[in-house]
Amino acid sequence: MSSNGTLGWDGFGTLRIRYDASAAGLEKLARSLRTRLGERTVPVEALQGISLSMSPGAPVVTLELREHADPLLSVSGGSFAALLDPYRFFLDAADRSTAEWLVADVKAMLARRQVPTSPSLQWLVAPPVAPDRIEGRDATVFLAGGHLAFAYKWTASRKKKADGERLSVPLADITDVEWTPNEGRLRTKGFFRISTARTALERPKPRHDPAALLTDPRTDVDVLFFAARLLTRIRP
User: How far is CA 52 from each of CA 65, 107, 182, rounded to the nearest angstrom?
Assistant: First the structure.
């Protein structure tokens, strides 16, 4: 048991995580993410490693996933802040011996199965259930007939709407998907954004980017799950 929830290991190659959002001191986004994730199954083949550290005086078990193993990590840039990280588990000091055993046993299984540390050739952790459309502060994004559509709201900037009130992009043209949570005191910097082969190296800020949506803190997790699902559609 940890502040994240329960991390179970069957000894044969599967980790099962049951998240708990009741820990004290969690920010709203971390609490919402853990509640919505519920349970996840992680095969050992999705790991490039597992580590045990002490923070301060209590053991911390961290699962280190291979690139392209979990779409949630891919759309968030590969990592989350410490308390938001769904693969970092803060245990009680009394659980240190159990944590040491788990880490050693998982490492032994990684070696036995010769799991590579290179990027995975396929998604190994299923994305969570996601809504069909997401609402942001300046747009609504939804899937329609093999396309991803951005319908801009009146709050969208003029630069974003320079070519019209709506943008429709074929899924086959999308090359990347990213999500950034709302952070800071004002919690106004979160966004969802896609890239295509035509996307410029230097692109506008999300507020002015037609292929981006400014997220609302109340729907951050919905947008994250939508982004992860979308990524698995464009990269099987």
Answer: 15, 11, 29
